[in-house]
DUF2029 domain-containing protein (Nocardioides mangrovicus), 483 residues
Amino acid sequence: MSEPEQPPVQAPVHPSHADPVARAWSERIGGPVGGHARPHAWWTPVRVILAVATVVCCLALVQKGPCIQTQWLNNDVRYSKMCYSDIPYLYVDRGLAEHHWPYSDSDGRYQAMEYPPGIVYVAWAASWLTVPFATGPPQSVRAHTEPDSFWGLPGMTQEINRNFLVNAVILLGVALLATFCLVGAAGPRPWDAMAFAASPTLLVTALINWDLLAVACVAGALWAWARGRPVVTGLLLGIGTAVKLYPLFLFGALLVICLRRRDLPALGRALVSGLLGWVVLNLPAVLTGAPQWRYFWHFNSERGPDLGSLWLVISDSANPISAHTVNVWSWLVFALACLGVLVLGLVAPRTPRLSQLGFLVLVAFLMVNKVYSPQYVLWLLPLAVLARPRWRDLLLWQVGELFYFGMVWLHLDNALASGTSGGGDPAYTIAILVRVVAELYLTSMIIRDVLVPEYDVVGGAPSEAPESDQAQSTTTRSNPVVV
């Protein structure tokens, strides 16, 4: 019996040919690539994109420079210079400076960490990786010092900075891994991943928190799905859910695709492997400290309208809204939005791509979520660059995100009309609405691509082609650099 015929490996798509913005930019360096251009043997697309991502990651660290230089102690600097990060403060406030296992009882000395286990493990491991560079007092001294006084201990501020740098190295390495996966997921369009690597939102938000860990899991899941590996896809989404909750919602996108392809066994394999990955990462936390593990869920259920959310806008313009009311309505609206994505996916002329459906589900969640921290743009970024790989649309969306990024710090710095951490600033409200409009604009472009495939610049690429176009995925070779 002869082997099934494999789809041919497509030549890479040159952005200077396919994208108007890239074509215009290329005029500054000689214009679009010609038919007789000779590619460089070593500088392949993946290496060029990783090099750009490395530069952006280094600039992300430079962006935190003012806070590093002031040892994170100057409130005016951390907001006015927009260099704030959660990492140094949690190193002290959650017991990491004492290498306290976050899932053990500290007798009230430390609050439990308000994150899923994946982030907690990395933060705790980074505290141990800081030990060779520690400059603070011995652990015996720390054990007899109140946590609020840690910042005043000799050498402690320098150690806090070093712990931040340790975390930064980890996160920036994770960003490179995510970039590599996106290049692979893009198939014959490797240059689409450049929109992630060179993203201004990546530069300014990469080191605010540990969100890049979940971003890398999602990018890896996109890579695995592009290669027809549902088990690996589900496993990475399950691990991602143990890091941040949002990768869980991408299983809804898999459901739509598998229904279209009549391939529910693939969905089943993804769900089982995802559950396994989630359980394995959560098990140590549950076994060593179930109350501390539950704190993440309790914290989010009790949280009211918070920074960046539409619920905050509604609460500021009308009567305050209780956490219970927000919980009920946010999940109800999100469920209706997911139903809409399901219908959209089923009625579309051809099977939408995972990146398209994943973006739509995730943006619906962020619209109704109780908080929108500045780094949440990273959740959308890997999906956006594959769902709508047009520089114009991606940049317009990120302009809105960057405007919000700047305004949230001015709001917290009390630099706006009536700045308070609880809201009430008209300028800050406008910033929230501008960000939402920008997200809705990109959402509308993706919905149009799904309903009218002629607008979709990706088309039926081998990485995510409809079921009628391919029997199984193929791995594309690393292509020489030609833009």
